[in-house]
Structure formats: structure tokens, C-alpha cells
Amino acid sequence: MNHIRNFSIIAHIDHGKSTLADRLIQTTGLVDERDFRDQILDTMDIERERGITIKSQAVTLPYVDRQGRSFELNLIDTPGHVDFSYEVSRALASCEGVLLLVDAAQGVEAQTVANAYAAMEHDLEIIPVINKIDLPSADIDRVKEEIEIDLGLDSDDAILCSAKEGTGIGDVLEAIVREIPPPSGDTGGPLQALIFDAHYDPFRGTIVSCRLFSGAVRAGDRIRLMHNRAVYKVEEVGLFRLNREPKKELTAGEVGYIISGIKTVSDVRIGDTITLDSDPAPAPLPGFKEVKPVVFASIYPVASDDYRSLADALEKYKLNDAALVFQKDSSAALGLGFRCGFLGLLHLEIVQERLEREYDQSIIMTSPTVQYRFLLSNGEEVTVDNPVYYPEPTTIVKGMEPYIRASIMIPERYMGSVMDLCLARRGVNAQFSYPTPGRIEIRFDMPLADVIYDFYDSLKTVTQGYGSFDYELLDYRESDLVKLDILLNGERVDALSQIVFRDSARPRALHACEKLKDEIPRHMFKIAIQGAIGGNIIARSTISPFRKDVTAKCYGGDVTRKRKLLEKQKKGKKRMKMVGSVAIPQSAFVAVLKTDKDS
Amino acid sequence: MASGLYIHVPFCRSKCPYCGFYSIPSALPMPAWSSAIEKEILLYRGRFGRFDTVYLGGGTPTFLDDPTLSRLTNHVFTHLVIDPNAEFTIEANPCDLSREKARRLRDLGINRVNLGVQSFDDRTLAFLGRRHTGADAEKALKRLRRVGFDNVGVDLIYGLPGQTQDGWKETLDRALAYQPEHISCYELTLEKGTVFERRHAEGSLRPVNEEEGRACFLAAARILGSAGYLHYEVSNYARTEAHCSRHNRKYWEHVPYLGLGPSAHSFDGRDRWWNVRSIRRYASLLDAGLAPVEGRETLTAEQMRLESLALGFRTRRGVDLKEVASASQSAPLLSRLEDAGLLTIVDERVIPTEEGFLVADQLSAAFS
Questions:
Q1: Cβ–Cβ contact A554 with B under 8 A
Q2: Is B364 within 8 Å of chain A by CB?
């Protein structure tokens, strides 16, 4: 066990985590130059494009240190976004140490702090690594000071590197071996393996990534998932190199995979403990929790006949994303679809993008909403995550909505505009701290609903990209909530309804009316767009009809051309949703959610 | 129903800057064209059954010299089955219609003349690159009547830069003075590859805006309507039902038609094909015994439906209610469009109104 090191790299987004991981893989010779692709661990297209890791992955690096000793370094990659904080915590629980990566020019950011605290909670050895020292704007002294003050870590130990240039990588590897303790655990004890990830392989079923804390597991064993109470027969165990490398057995301290005929990743709970059915551990490893979605939205196929195909796509997608939950839903305006729950807004965007790109679906996604609670006059408390189920207003005693604690780090000069933004988003209980001169950390309690409504984009705009943001869920608080309906020519479009804070209803309604006016093309008749609370119209706009669109001549030679144009228009219409007689482009549903960048 | 025969005469004395039909400003290839057409006629002998319309279009068919024209006519009547009561139309340029020419046309059996008047205003005619004056057109109209043509059509253009409502109404009034059996009112369209299109792209030609175009369209509908004309297609008016262009209706109602000559299109009820454009290629293919066909398509049932929509909403005949019923949410859409005054439903047919004609392309798209 002394030759094993289990570690993660944690960092704020864009601080170079993937590049460092790539460089470690390359330096340890796991992959030769020719096969080297940037960001090897990020295999999904979207991960590559957005530069973020969505799923955790693991890889075992063979390493011979400067004294000639051989090691197995298990790098457990963590998702780099607050939506996936539980997955991060399970990955960290599988390690003895972390590389805390800080950008030499940007310094410590909100996620750096959050990640460092998470690592401390798990009692991990933290090695600060200052990356991008080749940048002209690198300010190593300042970053060291931030590491000392913001994080309370000893910056003398910080390793300087440039993952891009490949400098300092040897020092990083030596520090991993030197600073991070080897795993401990009883190889002879009952099996306890922590599941920190699972992904789906079309040929082998679910591949479970796990860290063994005690005991051993080998092919042929019957394993039990302690929280799920399901039993499976192990087909194969092994290590993650760049591909899976089968092994006779995995023992305490090791990180590897288990294949055991589990069909979908939804059958596996991240954070669950694997033990042997014949000799079970007395208790599961601590820290397990059910991941619950916090953001909800409905997905509909643009063309109603594509409902089956969307259902298939979701089933397939779900094989690899246990965090997505969905159930059948139907809308008067949009027909059959699915109500989905997501871990956060990024998760939602990823699901939407992958369904469209990888599964070739044309979908409409309704306004994301949080889970509201209503206390009714009959004493019942109902949970509502879909505006359709907003209770009859006269029966509502009080409404409640989820609050988060937002933590925002910015250069001091943006304080005014960020304060304004947070207050406009109903932030309360402001707290400030000044970790280093010129920088400020602002903490606010804010309704989650106002955060999912374009908050992060607005923050980036007002801080010109210098603001970083992290949040945690707090509690439910009383709130005056109303249902805002949108009507087209007097017909309510249920898919555009939103539950909103009463004081926000009018500006939201005006915004929706204006956006729809821009997005819906002119029709042959006038279109009235209205925003309403109950029977009360609080905003309106009008799309005037176009009144001439006909070509003068249509004789023998024009018919084919005319038909081809019509075929094209018909195809375009497939991407429109008919509500009443109004064709609403897919983009309109999205546009209603977005605030103007300049507002 | 009997088929239609179209013959494309791709020659003009000069090219008009707005016209997108295929023609060349020269008479030199006329003999080659003439003998090629004769070969093409033979290719289709025995097909298409009986023709009850013959239409000489172009180009400028009246630019053909008399021997060529009569040879062509003889050939058609010898080798194809032409109904004795066929509608036999020629498109004519006012310049070409001397009294002798008009008589010869009549003697060849031509019983309908469609005159390219375009306008009675000489400045407008000059702008359009026409070689005739308004007075020439009026003379031609009188001559046609004098030699006994009782079925005369007049083509007019509106929507020209600088043209006023009053100017357009005056043009209509002057046309009405001759009681033509048929009037076509075309809005100026920037056709691909024309001088006008190029000038528009360069910014030196600006056609009228949506509202002005609408006003001209509605003025024509009102003026010609009150003069008793039937507005039977977006751009076409006829004095009586019998005077609607029998030939053109075949295009709009999916009746088979055979198009001969370069760039001509044909339809046999299921397939549509179109000839090569270049006269030289047209002639050399026929010399080699080959059909001068450039492209061909076989229409699916859905394509036929789309065409029925595109064509139907352009005519007073409208569209069969069954054709629109398959579109999603057609019932509420129909009633909304009825309320908006764009169409009416009569005897299980969806009929566009005047306002409906103005958005005919959208109507078909809405039910596609």
C-alpha cells in the first residue's frame, strides 16, 4: 500500500486543471506523444468545448520517483462546477490528498476557497500549486499571500509550474509522493469500497469507479450495494489506465473499476458502499446522501410526432447520468413531453445540449423553476416544481421558496455594481470580508429562483468576467409568490407560465412580452401578447400582421421552384411550435428566460 | 381533361431589363431552333393525347418571320392531336402587329392574342426598355379588333419606382377603354440574372414598398372588379368565366401540359421535366435523336399536395378543404384566417379573398 497515492486536482474554473492532468499523464509515460490529445480525461465533446469536467474520471499513473521507487498514482478527476458538488465530495472522500491549483494571474477565486474547504473537511493533505507562471501577468507573490490569508495554507510549500509549458511538472509529481500519505486500510477486513462515479458502456453495462478502504474484491465475488441492497456478481475488476486494464483483484487502498452486470448507472448511487454479500461490512462508509434535483423544467419535442424518439433519447442519456430525473408530462400548448429535474442550471444546459447534439433531438425547454412549497388553508403543505400545479390562489396561506448562500469574490472596484445586482435579485444578510487588499468577498442569502434566472451571466457582465461565484443551499423562506401567465391572442401558453415573486411579476411580464414580440415572426393576422396574473393583464405587446407576400407570376416553369420553397418552409415550421394558430419558434421559449445583456 | 401545349420562342429584338424568361436578342439561330422544335414534336407524337390549348410564348413569338411561324403551326397540327376548338394563343409585342401580321396570325388559326402592353405611359415604357410607345399599343389593340380577334389579353406592370397610384389607375383605365377579354397585372419582380436585379443590388433601383405594392394591387382589384372583371388568379383578370386563360389554368390545376423549346417545362400528371436552356444544346441534343431534357422529377403524393396548396391559394378556385385538413390545427387556423378576412369557405373549398391573394404564399405555407 505504500506505493499508492490517491489524489485529486481541485481548482477554480479555467485555472488549468485539465491541462495539468494531461501533463501528468504525458510525463508519467502512460500515453506516448503520438496518441496524446489535449484534455485526455475530458472525453465528451461538450467538456472539451466548455473546458469543464462534467463527470469524474480516474486514471492510474505509473511513476518512478527520483530515488528510483515505483508508485501507482491514482488521479481522480473531479467535476468543476458547483452543480456537481456532491460528486466532488465523493471523489475527495476517495483521496488522501489534493493538488490545489491556483492561476498565477487570477489568484484565489470563489471556487478555490470552496474546494479548499471541502478538502479540509475530508482531512486531506493539500498541496498548493501555482499554475500559469509563464503568463506575463503572473504575480506569484500576491497569489502566495492569498493562499496564506484566504486559505490559511503555508505558501512556502507551493509548487510553481506551467502545465502549458511543461515546467515544474517533475516537482508536482515528487510532491505527490512526498507530501500525500499512502492509503491505509485492512486488506484482510470486510470489503468496503466507495463508489465515486459510474458510467455506462454499451458492451459491458455500468462500470463502477470505486476506492477500496478495506478488504479485497475479485471476479466471481458476489457484491452488495449497501444503500441499494442490490446484489451482483462481479465479472471483472481492474485499474484505469487510459483504457481499462483488468486485474486479478483490487485491494484496500486501491482505486479501480468493477464490472458486475449492472444495467444502468441509475442502479448505482454515487457515494454508496460496495461490500461482499458473503462477508458484509458492519456499516457503510459515511457521507452518503441521495442527490436531489433543485432545478426543474419540461422538455418537449418540437414536432409532436417526435415524442417517442425523445423518450428513447432520454432513456439512453439517463444510462450515463444518474443525476437527471424525469417523468412524463403533458402541456396543452406543447403536447406530450417530460418534466425533468436537474442538479443546477449548468446541468440543465448540458442535458439540453447533449440531447440536441448527440441524440439529434429538436426540443423546447420551458422556463427552469425551483421547487416551491405552499401551505394551504386545509393545513396541507404542497411542493410545486411546475407552474401548472400552482395551487388555487384563494387556498394559499403562504408560499415558501428555497434560499441559497451565495459567495462572490470580486476586485473591490466592482463592489457597487455587484451589490446592486444582488439586491435586485432579492439578496439579504450581506456579509463582507476583505481577504487581501483590493479584493472583497460578498456573501448574500438569495432566493435560488433569482439565481437560476440568469444571475451568473449578469454577474460576469457587471464584473467584466472578474467575478467568481459559488453557492450552497440554505433553507426555505416565506415569499409572496404568484403565477404569471403568458397569453397569445387570449390563449394561455402553459409552457410559458412562471411562478414569480409578486414584485418581480410586472417587470418579468414586460420582459416576456417584448422578447416574444422580437422572436415570433409576423403572421397573417395580428398577435396580441399579454402577461397576466389570474384575470389581471399586467403587460402587453402586439405583433402587427404582414399584409403582402405573393409572387406575381406562377407559370409552368415556376411551379417546381415554388414547391421547393414550400418544402423548405414546411421544414422550418417543424422547428416552430403551434399554439392556437401562432407559430412560436423554439428560440422564443429560451429568449423569455434571458435578460438583456446590457440591462 | 385535354392537355396543353406550350412552345417557347426564345428570340427578342432586344432584352427587357426586367424579364427573366430565357431569350436571346438575335434572330440568327431561328432556323436551327425551328428544325429542332419539329424534331421535338415528333418525340412526343402519340403522347399527351388531345391538346385543347396551344400557347406560343417567349421571348417574342411575333418576332418569328411568317414562313417559320406557319411551318411551325403546320407541323403542330399535322403531328399532334389538336382539338378543333382549341384556344390558340400567341404573345405579341405591340411593335410587331402591323395589320398584315395581325391578319396572318388570324389566318394561321390563332384565336387569342396576349399583348405585352406593360404601360401606356411612354416614360414608364422607356424605363422598362420597351421599344413601343403607349400609342403603338393602342394602335395594336385597335388592329386586333379590326381583323376580328374577339379574345385579346393585355399585360400590365405595376410597382415601378416612381409610379404613382394615379399613374397606375390611369393605365388601368386606358386598358379598359378597349374592353380586353383578359388583363394580367404583374407587380414588378426582380428576377434572377436580370439588369434590374443587378441595379437593385447596386442600389440604383428601388422597387416600391409593401404598402405601395398593396395599394396598387387593391386598386386594380377594385377598378377591374367594378368594370365586371373576374379576379381569377393573383395577377389575372378575365371579362367572363369563358375568357379565363384556359391554357394557364392547366398549370394551376395539375392538368398535363407539354412544353416544347429551350427551357420549357412539361408535366404529364406525375412527372415534371424541363428542357435545357441553350438553343445550341437544345438543337444538338435533338440532332442526336435525344430528348433535350435537363432535369426531371416524379412528384410524390405529398409534393402534389404542396403544389395544390401553393397554386390553389393563388386562384379564385381555392383549395379543397380536405387538402388543408391534414395540416396541424387547421380548424382554428382556418377560422382565424376567416376572421382576419383572408379567406372564405364555400362548398368545401377554401377560397382566398383579395386580401388573401396578397398573402397567398403565406397561406400555402401555413397549411403546408
A1: yes
A2: yes
